[in-house]
Amino acid sequence: MAAIYSLYVINKSGGLIFYKDYGSKGRMDTNDSLRVASLWHSMHAISQQLSPTTGCTGIELLEADTFDLHCFQSLTGTKFFVVCEPGTQNMEDLLKAVYELYTDYVLKNPFYEMEMPIRCELFDINLTRAIQKDRVALLGR
Amino acid sequence: MQFFGGSELSPSPPTPTGTGTENNSHMIYIFNRNGVCLLYREWIRPLHTLNFQQDHKLMFGLLFSLKSLAAKMDPTCADKGNLGVPQLPGQGCSFHSFRTNTYKLNFMETPSGIKFILVTNPGTGDLRETLKYIYNLYVEYVANNPLYTPGTPIRNRSNNTRHHTFPSLF
Does the keyword Acetylation apply (chain A) (predicted)? Predict the structure, then answer.
């Protein structure tokens, strides 16, 4: 029913460090995914400028005709965003779970260089497990 | 003839699914397809980051880029143009709202390229019907006004009064 189309992680400068597509027709090649990530980073920053009140931390949800985009920004400026079907619930929890996996399997990996693309096997394995669990839970409803 | 196929102009706007009875909206912008700001009204805006000209340009630029992003990220369409190519109104996937922790921006573009933006509280529901109502007001009082030159800011007195009473109807 509700499906996740893709997941992106961008570093604090806006560079794409992780991109995973879960079976959408709109799968992008590397260059396009890099461009889209940088564009999102800029839009996120501009949206803070246009806020009518103080304390804006950027776009959390973008609703389009055929998809929703949920974004979570950590305190360090790393952004996790997921493209999913319109109306999908609990994406914030999923993003927080992905953030936890990121801190456990990427940041604590002594061979991982900060702000570089993520190439950690354990992160991939656990991420797939988390997404599958989410999918099963959603389908089971 | 109404664009959205509705009947006569409805006497009251649709009740949006939102919380509270106080004024929900912060500002409204109307742009034409060239980026000229036809109307800007603010009701509650404690923070002004930039002067008005820059603010309008920034808003238009943000919308243009977000539309481009939404068209590119569309997961249901395999063949898309390159990022940054200007999209015709209605071509490709477009977004209708985005939400931050302090505000929600509701957006609607008509086939003629007129863009309606309503900035409200984050808890507001789906305001697409409300934006359609505003569009009908625009058609009624602005587009049908023989003295109005398209592409210039809206100065119609009766339209302004409508807009002032409008947020109190939320």
Answer: no
